[in-house]
């Protein structure tokens, strides 16, 4: 026998417009309602026990309904247990009602007045700066934006489910949050094609000049950054494409009308790839990719000079990356060359004195064997790396030349200076430095 009264089911059916409900349907509905109610109560009791309480609240029932994927009841939130009274309207027909709390008018009259609410005020804030939403309390957070995107639009319609079911007139949300005008799309396509045109240098120069000087390219910055990253990722075998992408990045940085700060973190990886990449280009000439590394090093130095003040960790992270590629014996000589250039341009004299000079003697063993291999491609690369290394060390001479007088001829013998220099930087670099015939350079290395 069902606990739930079938007459109650008939009353509910009549209240929603079902005038005649078959008696054969009442019994199954009554059993199903009893099962559903008991299921909700069991889940609600779990919340009550986990909350270390002995009283079941409406909040427990609401949480149980959410767990069972049922829309919770609204308007019954209460921090105190509800009290129900019983009234008899006839023999065997009790009526339960919720007792209202009695209010004492004298207490209400004598109660202190609430605090006066604050006056309404208006303040201005930036909703977006150059297309980037600043993280301030007035703007919605990223989590709020994602939750808003997940909310189905329209009268209870989910676009994805509607599309799967074959419904017509389904509107889908575009992947791009802002739509470029037809003019900007045409401009972006034309500039990219002109920059990558190997046969027309005039078009390349004009396209780069436009990127460097046009003040209305704010919306195209993320597209150019994505274009640079994509071409570097998929064009490591094409030196021309890699070189042109570096020129595009340099033109964007030179444009004083553009705010590049939010995109620096996305520009640096392609530049580092062109600086310290293992294999760049497919030319058989061993030094074909070295001009590209020089361009990338100059671009990286420009980025550090422009954005180091706004990002205090930018220089240390780049120095660590370049030092890793400089001292790694498993890296090719081209990567070592890029690491040396990066350390020289990023940190200047301080980094050369603190990082490069103490490791010169250790690094010398990596280039000694390729230098002894006469006529091989590796010999040319080793010569380029050794030249770059000595060029970085020359910063020490430039830093001290202002406060150093000309060394007298009697200041130590040549043999003692040679031995001291060999102990400092190794015999190979010491011979190259002494052959330059620059006493100030020698003294700067010995005193550093």
Q: Decide which structural class fits the backbone.
A: mainly alpha
Question: What's the alpha carbon Rg, rounded to whole Å?
Answer: 38 Å
By DSSP (H or I, 4+ residues per run), the number of helices equals: 19
Order of helices and strands: HHHEEHHHHHHHHHHHHHHHH
Gross morphology: elongated
User: How are the strands of the biggest sheet laid out side by side?
Assistant: 1-2
- The residue-averaged pLDDT reads 81
Sheet with most strands = 2 strands, antiparallel
Report the strand count. 2
End-to-end span in angstroms?
98 Å
Strand content: under 5%
Helix percent reads 55-70%
Instruction: Give the low-confidence spans.
Output: 161-165, 403-411
Question: How does this model look, in words?
Answer:
It is a single chain. By secondary structure, the chain is mainly alpha-helical. The chain has helices at 6-15, 23-50, 58-67, 105-110, 142-150, 159-164, 182-195, 201-213, 221-234, 239-254, 264-276, 290-307, 314-327, 333-356, 360-372, 377-400, 414-425, 427-435, 439-447; strands at residues 84-88, 94-98. Strands 1-2 form a two-stranded antiparallel ribbon. β1 (84-88) and β2 (94-98) form a beta hairpin. α15 crosses α17 (414-425). The protein starts with 5 loop residues before the first helix and ends with a helix.
Short recap of the structure:
With 448 residues, this protein is mostly helical.
């Amino acid at each position: 026998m069902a606990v739930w009264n079938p007459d109650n089911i008939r009353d509910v059916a009549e209240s929603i417009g079902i005038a005649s409900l078959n008696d054969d349907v009442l019994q199954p509905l009554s059993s199903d309602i009893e099962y559903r109610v008991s299921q909700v109560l069991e889940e609600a009791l779990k919340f009550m026990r986990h909350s270390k309480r002995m009283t079941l609240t409406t909040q427990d029932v609401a949480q149980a309904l959410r767990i069972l994927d049922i829309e919770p009841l609204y308007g019954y939130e209460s921090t105190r247990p509800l009290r129900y009274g019983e009234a008899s309207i006839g023999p065997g027909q009790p009526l339960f009602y919720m007792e209202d709390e009695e209010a004492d008018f004298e207490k209400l009259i004598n109660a202190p007045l609430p605090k006066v609410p604050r006056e309404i005020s208006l303040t201005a804030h930036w909703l977006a700066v150059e297309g980037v939403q600043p993280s301030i309390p007035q703007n919605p957070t990223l989590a709020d934006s994602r939750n808003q995107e997940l909310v189905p639009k329209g009268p209870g319609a989910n676009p994805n489910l509607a599309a799967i079911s074959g419904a017509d007139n389904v509107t889908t949300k575009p992947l791009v949050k802002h739509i470029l005008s037809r003019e900007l799309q045409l401009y972006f396509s034309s500039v990219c094609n002109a920059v990558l045109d190997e046969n027309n240098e005039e078009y390349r120069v004009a396209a780069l000049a436009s990127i460097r000087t046009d003040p209305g390219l704010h919306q195209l910055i993320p597209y150019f950054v994505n274009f640079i990253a994509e071409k570097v990722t998929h064009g490591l075998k094409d030196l021309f494409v890699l070189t042109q992408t570096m020129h595009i990045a340099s033109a964007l940085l030179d444009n004083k009308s553009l705010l590049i700060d939010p995109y620096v973190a996305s520009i640096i990886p392609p530049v580092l790839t062109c600086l310290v990449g293992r294999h760049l280009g497919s030319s058989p000439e061993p030094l074909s990719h070295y001009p590209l590394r020089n361009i990338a090093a100059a671009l990286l130095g420009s980025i550090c000079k422009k954005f180091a003040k706004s990002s205090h960790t930018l220089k240390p992270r780049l120095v660590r990356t370049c030092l890793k590629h400089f001292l790694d014996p498993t890296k090719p000589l081209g990567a070592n060359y890029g690491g040396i250039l990066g350390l020289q341009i990023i940190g200047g004299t301080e980094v050369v004195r603190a990082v490069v000079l103490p490791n010169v003697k250790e690094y010398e063993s990596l280039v000694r064997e390729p230098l002894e291999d006469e006529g091989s491609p590796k010999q040319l690369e080793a010569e380029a790396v050794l030249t770059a290394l000595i060029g970085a060390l020359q910063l020490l001479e430039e830093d001290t030349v202002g406060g150093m007088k000309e060394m007298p001829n009697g200041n130590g013998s040549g043999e003692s200076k040679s031995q001291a220099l060999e102990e400092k930087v190794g015999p190979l670099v010491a011979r190259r430095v002494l052959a330059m015939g620059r006493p100030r350079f020698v003294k700067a290395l010995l005193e550093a």
